Fold this protein.
Amino acid sequence: MQDLKNTKAPVSTTTFNRNEFDGKTENIYEAISITAKRAIQINSEIKKELLEKLEEFATYSDSLEEVFENKEQIEVSKFYEKLPKPHALAVLEWLEDKIYYRNTEKDA
């Protein structure tokens, strides 16, 4: 998993140069498909990590009336809410040549 605290991925919407984005594949749809698959992987990694951290704070009780406010749990949740979205992380990886891909149709 990449270092989420020190990522340079944008938190808000950013416009990219189309020619730079699809230059490696020469096909915008293929480039988008590759980054979308990577975004799904990143999302599942982040979700797994978040659930593991929140599990540390889990309290099990029989009563639904008991609600506990755990400040550490809230801070962990806020940290993950402020992270760049998985698609932004995937696009940054794509532009920095950190995603390995191959076209099996061209390889054959």
